[in-house]
Amino acid sequence: MILSGAEKITIFDKKKINKEVLQCKFFITEKDIGFQRDEICLKKLKELNNIECDALNDNNYINYIYKYNIVIVSEILEPENLEELNDICQQNNIGFIYGLALGLSFYCFVDYGEHVIINKNNKEPEGYSIKNIIKGKKSKIILDDSQKENFKLNMNDYIILKEIKGILQLSRNPKKKIISSDNNSFEIEEDSSLYDDYIEGGMAEEIKEPELVHNKPIKQMINDPTKCEENLDEEQNINMHMAFIVLHEYYNLKKNLPDIEDLNNSLNIYKNINRKFEFSKNLELYEDYFNNILKFAKYEIPPVCGYGGGILSQEIFKYTGVYKPSQ
What we know:
The chain is of the alpha+beta class and about 325 residues long. The chain has a domain at about 125-205: Ubiquitin-activating enzyme E1, FCCH domain (Elongation Factor Tu (Ef-tu), domain 3, Beta Barrel), CATH 2.40.30.180. It contains eight helices and 15 strands. The chain has helices at about 35-45, 80-90, 170, 220-225, 235-255, 265-275, 285-295, 300-315; strands at about 10, 50-55, 70-75, 95-100, 105-110, 115, 125-135, 140-145, 160, 165, 175-180, 185-190, 200, 205, 210-215. A six-stranded antiparallel beta barrel has the order 7-8-12-11-9-14. The radius of gyration is 25 Å and the shape is elongated.
């Protein structure tokens, strides 16, 4: 974010540097042991780009978040503190991101409240030459075959039709919403049965229609999760989500994260809280999968941290209205 030219970045991390963090904190060396993390990192961060970059010195950070567009939390918090911070951000139209690198797992939560997306794929509007228009209850637009490879219009995209010879009624009407598409045609929900016949020519031009999305706060997402990963089946997704809940419940009770020696406590927490969640009532627990998430959670692995940091940076960019933020 610093290299990309953000106007201002403030960091807040008052923990002392010890040997354990040397392997995963990229701006820390052995001679920095004993100093505050943010104090040491800030010196290196300022060398990256000439933007305003500082560290917050007051431990009562909540008093300061009103000055910022986005708040990013990258270490585990107790559920009560996490929800309070998220609520404050929602009530004040501040973006909120929560990202955790926990062993081999990475979690990312984004809440931009009511958020307008002005360009969901960050591309210039596409234009396509029309080959034919088939009249009917739903009008079908067939495009020039030579454009098949580059066709990128999908259901719910908007287009306008122009420069058509014949079937003038379609050109006169305003923007159209695509209701279905394949690799060289699409349909719009407009009855053209009584329109003039199509003769030739014409263009279908994409319109970048602003989209209003409503992100849910984290306390709602915990009770009503969305799919975590496209390449996971539903049971794996629910197992991953329950592991996330158990990790936070464990942290709330113990003030640290579980490890290989303490899986029994984690499983007991799971058994105690599982019945509270409607979505998990018929859950088949993948114990090996579940255990692997929990037993490595306290370890920070540099490639996972780097990968997760890249994801968080992309989510921050989406605050500008380009691309759709993760749910």
